[in-house]
Amino acid sequence: MEFEAVIGLEVHIQLLTNTKIFCSCSTDFGAPPNTHICPVCMGMPGVLPVLNKKVLDYAIKLGLALNCKINKFSRFARKNYFYPDLPKGYQISQYELPILEGGHVEIFVNGEYKKIGLERIHMEEDAGKTIHRPDGSYVDFNRAGVPLLEIVSLPVMHSPQEAGEYLRSLRRIVRYLGICDGNMEEGSLRCDANVSIRPKGQTKLGTKTELKNMNSFRHVEKALEYEIQRQIEVVEDGGKIIQQTRLWDEKTGMTKPMRSKEEAYEYRYFPDPDLVPIFIDDEWIERIKDEVPELPRQKLERFVEEYGLKEEDARVLVEEKSLADYFEEAAKGYKKPQSIANWILSELLGYLNKENKNIEDTLIKPNHIRELVELIDSGLISGKIAKTVFGKMYETAKSPKQIVEEEGLVQITDRSQIEGIVDEVIKANPKAVEQYKSGKKNTIGFFVGQVMKKTKGKANPKLVNEILASKLEEL
Asked: Which residues does the UniProt record annotate as the domain Asn/Gln amidotransferase (predicted)?
């Protein structure tokens, strides 16, 4: 029997607000433990939460970007459970009246676009962080009360690859919107996966397991691959899938049972009596709509249409908004934007990736990329010399023109000068001349190499080839 996987993802994104969702404590990451806390986020008696309006703005912005229904009326609910990192004994979340419903995330997989439907998006506060050490377990409450949006997809993904691309697409969008930095390694984007299997062709959902402890896209894909295969083997052996939460173990490459999976009623949700309901009017939505930037898919299509870029190149450039902006600045007013893109993608990203750096870290100004391409196109330097110049640009932040002048790297285009060097090379290599005359025409490559060596790569390659071909044929 052939089985089909059914996957739904629950993604939590930490919002880039300066303060927490219900108090004025800082949200800065990496502060010493328990230094960004107050009576409100610690759940002390006699204090009341006050909603951070920026959280609502960011939720509306995401809803507009993902084509969600923005509920004009919503409210917070208390999600009751006991855990060491939850100081109040409940989490302020949303339940029956979330701020956003529906919508979709568009992914590109197997050469085509697919819309992954969303069930809902709601606001909630983060919990603290439990730290386990050999000498005991500790809780850092700095994270308690940090604002989150939980994005719940419909169970419409059928492969780990689709799930991975969904996460990448979602991260691109929230980064473009400027509402979350999307750093999984710092916990600002976290993902739980619900997965089940069913015989192919059936529509009824099987018993699901929830997967946790996945802190990279690759871990999500690997955990899903393992869990799907595990469930298939259980069913084929005559067993039954147990509804449970399982932890991904990176070291063993396996998922391990953690606890039985809770149902919603076990959390005893009820409206939070300390927070008033939320009313959103059309004017508010229109104001936020003006703040929504051009999104990755729209930018990709524009890069292909406006700049004539190859789609695969445009796809890489729009991966990060800062990289796309860098390209646009570099290509401004230049007739060959594809050449600009080539240098950014092959050379600049090559250097940055080697040092594990981002585009923001480069010393090279965007207009210096354009200047370098102009030097090549004008014939002042060759492509080979340009690579040398680029290396010095990367190290020093100098302009290509300055480097070319200082290093004396201007390309030799004087025909008579090149002819003289070609004559010397031919005279010094009689054996190679005989080989060429005997029909081994590819020997011309040897002569080109010798000329370039003599000129330290400065001779115009096109002119060198032309002169060599002419002189060798005359012999």
From this structure: 325-472
